[in-house]
Amino acid sequence: MTTEPPTSLQAAANLLFINGQPKLQNPYDKFHLFRFLPTELRLSIYALSLPRRVLTAQYNSNKESVTVYAALPSLLSTCVESRIVALKHYSLSFGTYTSKPKTYFNPDLDTLYIPRCSDMGYDENFRTFKNFIVEDMRQEGLLSEGDIRAASRRIDRLHSVAIDYVDAQIKRPWEAYNKASFLRSFSQLDEIILVLPNKDKRFSHDTQSVSSLPSNLHSKSITRWRNPRLPPETILNMWWDFRQSFMAEENVLREVCEELGKDYEIFNLPTVRIKEIEVVQIP
Question: What SS3 string covers 11-37?
Answer without folding.
Answer: HHHCEEEECCEEEECCHHHCCCCHHHC
